[in-house]
Design goal:
The complex is a heterodimer. By secondary structure, chain A is mainly alpha-helical. Chain A is built from twelve helices and no strands. Chain A has a domain of 214 residues: MetI-like (MetI-like fold). Chain B has a single domain, classed as MetI-like (MetI-like fold, Orthogonal Bundle). Helix content of chain B is 72%, strand content 0%. In chain B, helix 5 crosses helix 9, helix 5 runs parallel beside helix 14 and helix 7 packs antiparallel against helix 8. Chain B is built from 15 helices and no strands. The chains are: A mainly alpha, B mainly alpha.
């Protein structure tokens, strides 16, 4: 167990290091940060001054060492847009993104289990075919568009829910539903196929033969065995939600989390804040991966973590 | 040399003929629907200049925000209405297919060939090459792809070419992983060993002997990825970091229509439907392809057909 953790931790460090180096290379070598961050009409003196301020006039190797040194102290420097430490902003926004991601994937999981089981009970039946078709549609609808449609219909036409922002539980509903949909579509598919496999196993017949109730056989024995692929996918969905979907959903609903902040930083050419956001999200992805392995081990003690 | 390496027994063929394939397609209604929709979309993209009633970027400032023809105030000149600059929505939707499909195809080709070559190398060479490539893949898979794509695009400037490059950079790993797994599973088979024994070079073994046998799973993966890429391009364009005006893209049109969403519902609705229909069509084709190319699934289907056939025959036999 200890060795396993050491290995995963090392892998995680490699990932975070890789992301950071990539972002560093892209922003310093491929692009010219000064050109990106200053307006077009800036004079040569202004550029030089700005370069000096950010330390960009030093050799690239020195800059890299300095950048990495800052990383170990979680210090990326001040955001150019908000004029305060980038990390402070990131830690302010992080809880909102996590809330959205966890609620979204949680909702998807809760809905997917009964739906997937319903479909798996009679493969090829009406319930099965409509579930599969609906999930295909769910996978095909772009998330940002779904969000906009929900806003137009539920918030503007019917005025049941607020269009955007945060505050009350009602503000949560639309973003969470939008976040949940693609995850729900994929989870239903995996619950379904996993349950179909399990229900065809011999032990299910044994359970029925010894007189267990239908509910117990399907809901406890089969479901438990079918859980492993579902947990894997849940982990992936969480990662997708944090690292990708949050940007889109938060933009649509003006949800002030990391994703919206990333887009705002992008619009203001605040590469420092962006670097901090990417760094934190990379760490989150690594942490979720490790947590998923632990959940695995809890579900199936036979698994050797290696 | 060649004849010695050729397999002595006839190879079992997947499809008896093209006709057989079409028959199978017709029987699977969802797959048929997908292929038909895909064909229609391809035609729409190819024949866009003939089909579109107006040039996609032609502005008509006197006819701004005209609703679709069936709504009050709509005109037959603009079937799906016009946007805030008086551009014809229908024409833009038709031209948008070009961008989506072109970006999707380019990314799949680029990412696919890179991933497949690396996967072939990793699986065939094994040892240090394998562990190096796999570690690279494992590391890059854990990257926050969308954020990195946004940063790269912001720095080097968003355009169709850069969008293709960035999406390919983010998406080649699946192909690598899958190809490696497949290569490992055929690595020890007789035909590969025979090819090695007669002295084929590594490249020849990989590309002439192994790769053709991986076609069907890789093709299914490529089509699934195609669907994902169409959505990704739309999302990037929606966020303002994808295709740039004056070019047209469905994602871009949804983003532009967002500002007029409350007055002009059609601006957001139609490009969104176009994206959804495209992705749905690709997904339907992919799931059909998976069904017909997976031997296990084929067996199940065959059993089902035989059951249906015997059920039909029995009453006939009873009548005379």
């Amino acid at each position: 167990m200890g060795r396993y953790f050491l290995r995963r931790l090392l892998q995680g460090i490699v990932v975070v290091f890789g992301v950071t180096v990539l972002v560093f290379v892209v922003t310093r070598l491929v692009g010219d940060p000064v050109k990106v961050m200053l307006p077009l009409e800036a004079t040569a003196e202004q550029r030089a001054e700005f370069e000096r301020q950010l330390g960009l006039d030093r050799p690239i190797a020195v800059q890299f060492v300095d950048f990495m040194g800052g990383l170990t102290r979680l210090d990326f420097g001040d955001s150019l847009w908000q004029r305060r430490p980038a990390m402070t902003i990131v830690f302010e926004k992080l809880p909102l993104t996590l809330q959205l991601a966890f609620l979204g994937v949680g909702l998807a999981l809760i809905l997917s289990i009964p739906l997937g089981i319903l479909a798996a009970l009679r493969p090829g039946g009406v319930a099965d075919r409509s579930t599969v078709f609906l999930s295909l549609i769910g996978l095909s609808v772009p998330q940002f568009w779904l969000g906009l449609l929900l806003i137009v219909v539920l918030a503007v036409r019917l005025q049941w829910l607020p269009t955007s922002g945060i505050g009350t539980p009602a503000h949560l509903l639309l973003p969470v539903v939008t976040m949940a949909l693609p995850a729900l579509a994929r989870l239903v598919m995996i619950v379904r196929s996993s349950m179909i496999d399990e229900l065809n196993q011999q032990y299910v017949k044994t359970c029925f033969a010894k007189g267990l109730s239908f509910r117990r056989v399907v809901g406890v024995h089969a479901l438990r065995n079918a859980a492993l692929p579902v947990v894997t996918l849940c982990g992936w969905e969480l990662i997708r939600a944090v690292a990708g979907y949050s940007v889109v959903v938060e933009t649509v609903f003006a949800w002030p989390g990391l994703g919206l902040t990333a887009i705002q930083a992008l619009e203001r050419d605040d590469l420092i804040l962006l670097q901090a956001i990417v760094f934190i999200v990379a760490i989150l992805v690594v942490v979720i991966n490790i947590l998923m392995d632990l959940v695995y081990k809890a579900i199936d003690p036979r698994l050797e973590l290696a | 040399m060649k004849t010695a390496a050729a397999s002595p027994e006839p190879r079992p063929r997947r499809f008896t003929s093209l006709q057989g394939l079409c028959g199978e397609l017709w029987r699977d209604k969802a797959g048929f629907l997908g292929v038909a929709m895909m064909a229609a979309l391809l035609f729409m993209a190819a024949a866009a200049p003939l089909l579109a009633p107006h040039p996609p970027a032609a502005q008509d400032l006197r006819a701004r925000l005209v609703p679709p023809a069936w709504e009050e105030g709509g005109s037959r000149k603009h079937l799906l209405g016009t946007d805030h600059l008086g551009r014809d929505v229908l024409s833009r939707v038709i031209y948008g297919a070009r961008v989506s499909l072109a970006v999707g195809a380019a990314v799949v080709l680029l990412a696919g060939s890179f991933g497949v070559v690396l996967g072939l190398l990793a699986g065939y060479r094994g040892g240090r090459t394998d562990s190096l490539i796999m570690r690279w893949i494992d590391t890059q898979v854990a990257f926050p792809g969308l954020l990195i794509a946004l940063i790269i695009l912001a720095v080097i400037g968003p355009s169709m070419l850069t969008v293709i490059l960035v999406l390919a950079f983010n998406g080649w790993m699946v192909y690598g992983r899958m190809t490696r797994g497949l290569v490992l599973s055929v690595r020890q088979t007789a035909y590969v060993e025979a090819a090695e024994m007669v002295g084929c070079s590594a490249a020849r073994v990989l590309f002439r002997h192994i790769l053709p046998n991986l076609t069907s799973p890789l093709l299914t993966l490529a089509i699934l990825e195609f669907a994902r890429i169409v959505l990704a391009e739309a999302a990037l364009s929606f966020l303002g970091m994808g295709i740039q005006p004056p070019a047209t893209s469905w994602g871009l049109d949804v983003a532009a229509g967002k500002n007029y969403m409350f007055r002009a519902w059609w601006l957001v609705t139609f490009p969104g439907i176009a994206i959804s229909v495209t992705v749905l069509a690709i997904n339907l084709v992919a799931s059909w392809l998976r069904l017909i190319s997976d031997p296990q699934e084929r067996e199940k289907q065959f059993a089902r057909q035989m059951r249906a056939l015997s059920a039909r025959k029995r009453p006939e036999a009873a009548t005379p």
